[in-house]
Amino acid sequence: MRKSDAATLMRVCLAVIIVYLVFLKVNPVITILLIAIAFLSDAVDGYFAVKDGSRGSISFAFYISAALGNKEAKAKIRPIKERIAKHVPYGPRMDVAGDRVMEFAFWITFTYLDIIPVIVFLLVVIRHAFADALMGQKGTSNKMKSKLAARIYSSNLSRGMINVVKFLAFAYLVLVYVSGYPISIGYALVAILFAFIMIRGAAEIYESLH
After folding, report:
1. Is 55 left (phi over 0), alpha (psi -120 to 50) or beta?
2. Residue 131 is inside which H or E element, if any?
């Protein structure tokens, strides 16, 4: 098994553990720390994939510098990602599957606990189902041709922001359920996250239909 796929599976396992801890109302600091690790592991599996594709010539610091916008680093890593997508086509889809499992685990949990309205979760599922299906036949987000769609969906800024918002929203909902924090802030964070998800989904669908 490739290291990147192992990291993806670890993220899925962490999601299951986190949900279990939420239901047990374990110390929220532990649960939130594991949520942070789960989101950070998304960068780790991407690095392992690039490292394997470059035969170990890419360091983690170099990979992060590309993620932060270093043009030289991005130019060197881009063809590696394209080669991986061509020779290991299931790799990028495995990463997407891992992301969806982790995200849906949180949506389902907080919907079941009556913290998030069911309609919000249903709309998120519909968005992901159609966007993933349409993008699946086009390839990975790294191949987006529309500059607008690429900026909204696949740019490093967009990827970073959505992960930060997801972490803040789900981490705060843990505090709502376990420690009784005000739900109003949770609703605000969920609204921001929902808007981000829908806008990025629209960019995916736009790209897929052009």
Report:
1. left
2. helix 118-136
How many whole angstroms separate alpha carbon 1 and alpha carbon 91? 11
Phi, psi of 172 (to 5 degrees): -70, -35
What interhelical angle do 60-67 and 71-87 show, nearest 10?
100
Main-chain dihedrals φ then ψ at residue 17, nearest 5 degrees:
-65, -45
Phi-psi region of 181 (alpha: psi -120 to 50; beta: other; left: phi over 0): beta
Average pLDDT across each block of 10 residues of the chain; the chain has 210 residues. List them in order. Answer: 76 94 96 93 72 66 64 69 63 77 95 96 94 70 57 70 93 97 96 93 78
The full set of domain ranges for the chain reads 3-208
> Residue 88 contacts by C-beta under 8 Å, 6 or more apart in sequence?
2, 49
Angle between helices 156-179 and 60-67 (to 10 degrees): 100
Nearest to 169 by CA among 125, 113, 106: 106
pLDDT digit string (tens) for 135-193?
A: 766 555 555 566 655 666 666 677 778 889 999 999 999 999 999 999 999 999 999 99
Q: In 3-state terms, what secondary structure has residue 143? A: helix
